[in-house]
Each structure stands twice: as structure tokens, then as C-alpha cells.
Design goal:
Helix content: 40-55%
CATH superfamily of the largest domain: Aldolase class I
Bound molecules: 3-methyl-2-oxobutanoic acid, zinc ion
Distance between the termini: 32 Å
CATH topology of the largest domain: TIM Barrel
CATH class of the largest domain: Alpha Beta
Number of helices: 18
Oligomer: single chain
Length: 540
Amino acid sequence: MAKDPGRVLIFDTTLRDGEQSPGASLNLEEKLAIAQQLARLGVDVIEAGFPFASQGDFAAVNRIAEQVGGGKGPIICGLARASTKDIKACADAIEPALNKRIHTFIATSDIHLKHKLRKSRKEVMAIVPEMVGYAKSLVEDVEFSCEDAGRSDPEFLYEVIELAINAGANTINIPDTVGYTTPSEFGELISKINKNVPNINEAILSVHGHNDLGLAVANFLEAVKSGARQLECTVNGIGERAGNAALEELVMGLHVRRSYFNPFFGREAESPTPLTAVRTEEITKTSRLVSNLTGMVVQPNKAIVGANAFAHESGIHQDGVLKNRLTYEIVDAQTVGLTDNRISLGKLSGRSAVRARLEELGYDLNREDLNEAFSRFKDLADRKRDITDRDLEAIVSEQVQQPESRFQLRLVQVSCGNSLKPTATVTLADQNGQDRTIAAVGTGPVDAVCSALNSLAEVENELIEFSVKSVTEGIDAMGEVTIRLRKNGKLFSGHSADTDVVVAAANAFVNALNRLVAADQNTSIHPQKDPLSTNFKEGI
Ligand code: KIV
Ligand code: ZN
């Protein structure tokens, strides 16, 4: 059996695999804010990015290693393809962290070997020990992944894993890269690896999986029963295509059904010791932060973090829940930090009261950021009677999006109605602080605003998604707008919240434009899709 840490280690890859979701790209400040929240959530490992991808990716991993990788914080990990250049860049980026890990990988399925790597099994078997050994010469903690393990020949997998462990890999990760396997197959694969790899007891077995058939979480839970002790997952399940296994579903599955899983850890069924180190009360906040910053809206019926996850609509259910919550609820909303605390602050409240509430919510802002948050709070308090924690979160997450802005919205003004042509006047400042104003008409006020912004920005794009939802209930609720723009097949999201949805739309549009422009200037390579051949030649 593989090494057993006695509980499940949560390896969060929101900032690496999650960020590979179309349109989910994050700037450095946003990545840092998410990493800080992941540390509060209590994940064991943060995969902070793919440092070789670009200077921007390197800098983000480096900053996270520096600011989140200290003391008793999580292990900071970087991804590297099995090449010396990738591995060296990764080691340099994670260097400031106290606990650091290099995660290197190579594909093992015949389909990837033939069509992507154009390498033989023999060549892969030469690369693995050499690159794992190289990573091990740079850091103590090395993880090795067999990409597309779910479709690889198990006999070949056993050999590759044995080589990786002999070369120093502490963790062996088994990815179902294309979300192809079923729970019983995946569980069986983990059992067989445990049985057939002679040195498997020297490493921790980890799983990674995508949700193409909606089975990622079920696959992981089956793998846990077979001895997997690290789960690679993302907040809200974001990631390539249908996404990755969702962190909140895994953690709550193991929490709510602890007595079912305990025996697989050699514990008494009723043992109260948690199976993960995650602070479940931080889940809702983490989910909202990731959704706000990535612009990846959470579907209302999403397990654990969807807006309807704890809502009871039918009379029979409501009646049952009022009599005894357990009739229709298996998770107490407070366990995942879902509270509707209305802060007793209004427009007359002072800075220190706002700061105290923000601190309780886990936002430790510096002086400058606090000043800005306070002025936004005051502005909101003028327009909205009750301010909830969600409103405060919306204010703070929007602030994080500000750096690296090329355009800034200075003014937006619309006139519309049933007998008026919707017209918007917009003032936009460019990166030199130069203001320009223009007016435009549209089919509706938002269309008019976007049209005016496009004329000023002069950046080619296509608007492909516009969604509005309210942050809280009530007529004075803030509206959250998410906008997705497309350029050359790539997606860019923008997000903003305001009591005026037209203002929120304008800010979200400018935010998406800023991401698009930043991406044009910072071309990243994709760790799994970019051809490796030249890199490998240089690497070995
Ligand atoms: O899906 C996958 O195989 C991956 C690896 C790089 C671990 O993301
Ligand atoms: Zn993946």
C-alpha cells in the first residue's frame, strides 16, 4: 500500500488547472488573494501555476511562494513538464516558500505518446527517472504525474511509477486527464497500482481528474477507498472543458459521510476526527471569491456552493425542515460558512467598524486598500439600506481586480425608456490618464454602453456572454454582472457589482477589456497542449 498520512491531503489546483478554464485568467493580485484565501481554507498544497508558461506566471508563483508559503502555511507547488527548463523555472519560482514542491509530468497513454509527444514508451521510460531525479536535486518534495493515466496501459503505468519513485518522487499522481473512467474502474486502477508497483509504499498516491462525464468527484471518492490519499481539485470545480473535481464536494462528501469512509482509514466508523484539514466554514467565502475573480459563474443548483444548495422551495420540504432540519438537509448551511449576517453598519458607521467586519470575514487589508474599501462602503451605504457580508465581499473582490488596468471607467450615463433611443455617454481614461468621452446608441442601455466603450477602447473583441444576478435579495440589492469577450478564439471575463446594473455592466466590460489587453501583451504557453519536442531535446 502507498504511504498513508492517516487522512486525505487536499491539493488545490484552482490557480493552475482552474485557471486553464477558458476565460478564467487572473492577474497577479487576484492570484495572490485566492492563494491567501486557500491558506485560510486550510488546503495542504496550493498548485500556484506553471512558472515556465510566461514571465507573468513565474512572477505570480514566486509572489505566492513568498507571501503565502511561510510558517505553517500550505506547500507551494509549481507545475513543470518533464524538461530541465521547465523544472528549473519551477524551482526558481517556488524558491522563497518554506515548504515547496515541484510537480512534473509526462503523458503515458499510447494515444498521447503517438500523437502529442511522438515518443516511444522506451523514450518516456528514459525521461522519467532523469527528470524526476533532476527535480529532486533542486527540492526535497517532488510529485510525478502520468498524464492520461486513465487511458494508459496499466502494465506500462506500473513500470513508469516504479521508476519515478526510485528517482525520488514522494507523491505519485494518477490523472484521469479526459474524465473518461467510471468510479469502479478508477478505484480498481488505484488498487492495482497499490498491488503491482513494488516500491509504492515509499510514496503517497494522489488522484487528479476532469469532469467530462460528470464523474470526477465520484471517481475520487472511490479512489480514496482504494488508498488514494491526496485529491487534486479546484474551487467550484473550474478547469479545462467540464472542469476538475470540485474541492467543496470532495471535502463535504468526506465530512458528511465520515462514518462511511472512516474504516478505509483504519478508524472506527464513528471516529469524529476530520478526514481533511479543510476549515469547512471557509468554503462559501472561497467559492465566491473564486467566482468573482475568475468570472466563472456558479450554477444555482451546484452542490454545496450553488445559490439553491440550501433553498427549500416546495411546501412539503419547507414544512419538514421547520419541524426538523434533518428531514431534508444533510449539510447544515453554517458548516460551509453560509450565514446571512447583516452587519449593523450604516452610512454613519466609522472606518474601524468596517475594518473589524472585514477582518472577521478574513480580509486583512493594508491602509490604502482599507481606505478605498471604506469609501466604496460609504458610497454603497448611501444607496442601500442593509449591507450584508456578500456586499462587502463584492466591494473587496472588485478592488483586487484594479491593478494592471489599462482602461479606467470615469463616467457612465444613460438615457432610455419606452419612447427613447437608448443612448450612453461614457468617459474612459487610458493608461496615461487621458480622458476621452463619446456617446453611442444601442438596442438597450447596456448595448449602448458597450458600443461607446468599444469606440473609445479600439480593441477588437466580440461580446459573447452577458449575465446579471443579484448579490442579495431586495429592491436595493447590488446586481453582479459578468461579461465574456472573445478575441482570436480566446475568452476573457469581467465581473463587477453595483446597485446600478448599467454601471456594473460598464465596469465588467472595462475589466474584461483590461484582461484581454494584458493577455495580448503576455503570451503564455499551455502546459498540456504546447508541443514539447524541442524543449525535450534541449532538456535531456
Ligand atoms: O489533467 C491532467 O492530466 C493534468 C496534469 C498536468 C496533472 O492537469
Ligand atoms: Zn488536469
